[in-house]
Structures are given as C-alpha cells and as structure tokens.
Amino acid sequence: LQRDAKGQYLFDLLCHHLNLLEKDYFGIRFVDPDKQRHWLEFTKSVVKQMRAQPPFTMCFRVKFYPTDPAALKEEITRYLVFLQIKRDLYHGRLLCKTSDAALLAAYILQAEIGDYDPGKHPEGYSSKFQFFPKHSEKLERKIAEIHKSELSGQTPATSELNFLRKAQTLETYGVDPHPCKDVSGNAAFLAFTPFGFVVLQGNKRVHFIKWRVVTKMKFEGKTFYLYVSQKEEKKIVLTYFAPTPEACKHLWKCGIENQAFYKLEKSSQVRTVSSSNLFFKGSRFRYSGRVAKEVMESSAKIKREPPEIHRAGLVPSRSCPSITHGPRLSSVPRTRRRAVHISIMEGLESLRDSAHSTPVRSASHGDAFAAPGRSGRAESSERVAVIADENYSPADSVLPTPVAEHSLELMLLSRQANGAPCSIEEEKESEAGTPAAAEAEEVGGELRALCPGAGGLGAAQAEQVNKFVLSVLRLLLVTVGLLFVLLLLLIVLTESDLDTAFFRDIRQTPEFEQFHYQYFCPLRRWFACKVRAVVSLLIDT
C-alpha cells in the first residue's frame, strides 16, 4: 500500500478480487495493539489508522447484516453472508434452541458435503464438524438425522439460502456484541442489529429498541448514552459503561453507522455527529457510505452473469468433499486445537478457494473420512488448507449458543470443559494474533497476516497527548473567534449608521451610552493617536 492509500482503495481492491458487487454490507476489521477492535474507515489513510508496523492483520467481515439476506440479488453475496453467520453460530453469537441449532447445522452439512452417502459417511460423521461452542451426542444424532432424511437433493446454494432464511428469524441475528455494564454493575452485551438496538444479559434479550425511536447516541469517557423517544413525548436515557474509553468510542461509532444505514432513506440525509453537546469538545464522526434502501435499489439494477463461486470443501463436481487432516497429537488439550492454516503468500485466492470449511473436531487418524483422490491431490498442492490439532484454538464465544434440549441456559462450566472460550478479550487476541512463523491463521473467513504490537504503549500515550493538545487548540480557537465576533459587533454599534430596531434599542440603553462616552471614545482617541505617531515615525525614517 502507498502511505496515502485510503481505506476505500483497499476495500475496492478486495471486492474486485472476490467479484463482489453488493459490497456495502461488508467491511474490514482490524485490532490495535491494545486489543481494541475497529472498522477500517474508508475516507482515511489505511496506514494512519494502524497503530502498528506493517504488515497488518485485517479481517473481511459482514458489517451491516442484510434485513432479508434471502433477498440479496447475487449468490456470491449470499454465500459470503452465509459464511459470516456460520461463523457467528460457531462463536456462540447466534443464540438458538436445540431444534433450530440442529436444523442450521444440517443445512451447513448439506452445503459442504452434499447428500448423505453411506459409503462415504460412516456412523457419527456429523461429530467430525464443530458447529457450536459445545456439542452433545444427542444434538449430533439429530443433525445427522435431518441431513439424511430431510435435505437430500438440495444444492449448496439452496441449503445456504434455507440457512439464511432460518437464521434471520432468530432474535440474535446480526448481533456483534460489545461488552458493557449497566448502572447497577451487571454485565451486559450491547449490539446493533438491522432492526434496532439490543441489550443482552446472560442468554436473554432485556431490551430491544427500534431504530425509529432512537433519537441520539453520545459518549463521554467510558459512559455510553442512548436517548429513546417514547409515546406521549416521554424520553428515556439508557446508560452503560464500557471497559475503556476506546471501547466506548468504538461502540458509539458503530451505533452511528448502523442507525444511518438502516434508518435513513438517502445518504444525503447523513449528518456529522458530535459525541458532546459542545461543538469544540468531544469526537466528531460521519457515516460515509450508502444507506440500506439505496443499496437494495442499486442491487436490483445488477445485470450480469452470476460469478463462479469457489465453495470451501467442495470438489469441482459439487459432490461430497474430502477433509484433509494434518498429524493429530492426542496429548494436546482440546482448547488448543486450531482449524485451517493458510500461507500468507496464498493471499485472497486461498481465502476464496479453501478457507471456509467448517472446523473439524478432534479425532484420531482412523476417524478421518476423505476421498482418496482428493487427499492425494491435497498432499501435492501447496494451496490446500491443512487442519492440525497443535494450533487449534477456537475464538471466544462471548454469547454461547445454547444447545440444551429444554432451555436456553448459558453453561459456562460446560463451555470450559468443552474448550469454548469465555471472554471477548480472548477473541480479540485470536483476531490480533502475532505469529512469528511464515503462516497466518484463517477461521471462518478472515485473512491473517503478521501484525507486530511493538510500540503500543508509547503510541497510546502519544495519542492521549495529541488529544489533549487538540482540545486546548480548539478551545483557544473558539475563544478567539468569539472575541472577534464581539469586536465586529461593537464596531458596528458604535461606528456605523445602521438604524435598525435592534441596534437602536441597544444604543438607547444607559449602559451602552456610558460605555460609549467613558470608555470607547477615549480608547478610540488613544488608538488613533498611536497610529498617527507610528505613521509619522515611519515617514521620518
């Protein structure tokens, strides 16, 4: 990248490589050395947004979930959204009942391995895949049962479409959780969905506020405020506390962008928003993209041959894929398993061709099932993804997917026993990993590159100093500006012949007359005298 290359250039380059036209739903995410996530701003320089040295770690993500993913124009767009929601399911962000979880997993299975074949799929084949943070044998049997009996004959595109239709009906569809605390100190997750603002505590949605009643969002330090307008002109302010000021600012910016994208009719209605009531204080931010309605209208005008889709794990004939396993180490704990390694030099081509297969669960050599021809080709190819135990560590599940039979309970103990992580901090570490080897990790659709975190502390301190200096300069600038305006008004009042009602009322007040004759006139004579003296001195010299 050139040093002055904007985020839009990088994003357009990536979308061109993926042959993606409906690109407004997507974005590029990165994590700074302090493990704070950010969305790449397209109007700013890429290099200036990074607080580390190149090469950088960036992740291609769905930023704005479609209101109706099944209504997307092109199959390539639906496939990429399918990969994101499949990742959400795996990381526990998409909460669902056992019956829904089994159906979603069966759709994934049908899309990735095709129809059930007794010769290729031995007993317990569904247990080879990791769909959720935790599994149960009963759930695995239910997944296999649905896959065998109900989905036979469905093409990958049809299975993905059915998956999207089902996922859209769930309460946590489109949730990207931000950890916070409420005014009582209780842990909560805030999220913005296509339909409004959501607050989750445990596995329950405690607040759902539609975009049309959200009037304002602002933040001060770690405190986030959401202003809600209700019937009878009642206003409610919801207050939450983020872990850090940077996290709170990220939450605020996400809220501003989501509200603009889903609520507005036209992008021309977008306004610059300030985080404070005082225009010289706080942060200012403006959403720079198109809104949902404009995106849908633009998508309807797309007329081209559907681009070829390179689905992960599928052979060219789109029949049952093979799963190629690297050497398995039985002594490695389950929490250290890692799926899908991709060489950095393989770039986006490997991301498109082979990086999105569902993570395979731990098994012995004898448990692996693979087509012999495909396995042989995989061994001779440098671009094939290799699944190995020694580096496998599933990213954190901040909102674990409940798969208990009769309830939606968060089983923290069970998650730990099954190796599912428990905090968002670990997921950030997963996204911001800094491997020293020449390979980067790819899980469910992210392109990895080495990202050193050196200089993080010094950069943070420098940024704080810069913010303080900028705030002081703003204050001085505003003060000088106000004084200049007052001086102009004073000159107009005392020296001009304007006889408007406003000026006449001011001039007739006793206070103004006293000021004019006792202070302003002597000051004017003194200033004129000094000017004449300076002019005479210049003439003499």
List keywords for this structure.
single chain; 541 residues; alpha+beta; Acyl-CoA Binding Protein; PH-domain like; four-stranded antiparallel beta sheet; 39% helix; 13% strand
Give the secondary structure arrangement, pairings included.
Elements: H1 7-18, E1 26-31, E2 37-39, H2 46-49, E3 59-62, H3 75-90, H4 98-113, H5 137-149, H6 156-168, E4 178-181, E5 187-192, E6 196-201, E7 204-210, E8 214-220, E9 223-229, E10 235-241, H7 245-263, E11 273-274, E12 284-285, H8 292-300, E13 338-343, H9 347-354, H10 372-380, E14 386-388, H11 412-417, H12 424-431, E15 439-441, H13 456-495, H14 501-507, H15 510-540
Antiparallel strand pairs: 1-2, 1-3, 4-5, 5-6, 6-7, 8-9, 9-10, 11-12, 13-14, 13-15
Helix pairs in contact: 3-6, 4-5, 4-6
Flag low-confidence runs.
Answer: 314-356, 362-457
Number of helical stretches of at least 4 residues = 15
* Shape-level CATH architecture of the domain at 7-168: Up-down Bundle
Q: What structural class is derived from the secondary structure elements?
A: alpha+beta
Q: In angstroms, what separates the terminal alpha carbons?
A: 59 Å
Helix and strand sequence = HEEHEHHHHEEEEEEEHEEHEHHEHHEHHH
**Residue-averaged pLDDT:** 75
Strand residues, percent: 5-15%
Question: Which range best describes the helical content: under 10%, 10-25%, 25-40%, 40-55%, 55-70% or over 70%?
Answer: 25-40%
User: Under CATH, the topology of the domain at 7-168 is which?
Assistant: Acyl-CoA Binding Protein
Classified by CATH, the class of the domain at 7-168 is Mainly Alpha
* Neighbour order of strands in the largest sheet: 4-5-6-7
- Overall geometry: elongated
Region (Disordered): 353-380
Pfam families: FA, FERM_C, FERM_M, FERM_N
Subcellular location: Cell junction, Adherens junction
Keywords: Cell junction, Membrane, Phosphoprotein, Transmembrane, Transmembrane helix
